[in-house]
Design goal:
CATH architecture of the largest domain: Up-down Bundle
Number of strands: 2
Structural class: mainly alpha
CATH class of the largest domain: Mainly Alpha
Number of domains: 2
Shape: globular
Number of helices: 10
Oligomer: single chain
Helix content: over 70%
Amino acid sequence: MNSQGLFRRIRPKKISDEIVEHMKELILSGQLKPGDRLPPERELAETMGVSRPVLREAISRLVAMGYLENIQGKGTFVLSLAGDYMEEGGLQGFIKKGVYVLPRIVEVRKILETWSAATAAERATEREIAQMEEYLKEMEEAKNRGEIGYVADANFHSAISYATHNPLLIHIMNSIYEMIERVSYEVRSRMYTDPTSHEDLFNQHKAIFEAIKEKDSNRAYRCMLEHMHYVEREVQKIVG
């Protein structure tokens, strides 16, 4: 029996990484809402079956990423990244008001990410390229399972920004993703509702990765620009 292609590679994760992903999923899906207070640390650690130091590490990262907020003497709360946009009408209200927010974010991403792709093709280390490839595999696995794969997608783009080795660019890109990731779950579920869209999206990311891996900065720029034009068109369909 040929096991090639039958079994997928298992990627071990730190427990704190799994906690972060789980908490983000709860927030993005609306099961945890802005203003919700997390259970006390001891209770939450026991419920999740993890040690308090590991839980503390994960919560600290979520605070640093802007998902949670620690209020002295009161506890840890889910933070509204979208500010006033989220206060009226919840997630759906934010999406409606995204008629002028999201297209402008895409415009900024188009400028920054095309430069990032071209620069990453020149500066990415072998380790960074391997990390991009791992995220690309995760996107393919999600596609094959019929899932949106928005986490692997966002991680792929973040890996490209890190590969520029430009601290200011990395900070700006992280700030943008923190701003839009709350709505990306809903947005992507609307954008990619058929297998063709999933396949197109994956092929665009694959083309970007191959250009970066082959250190072809001009092709990386063009592939990223094509991808961002695609995202721009789809966002316009949603908000229009």
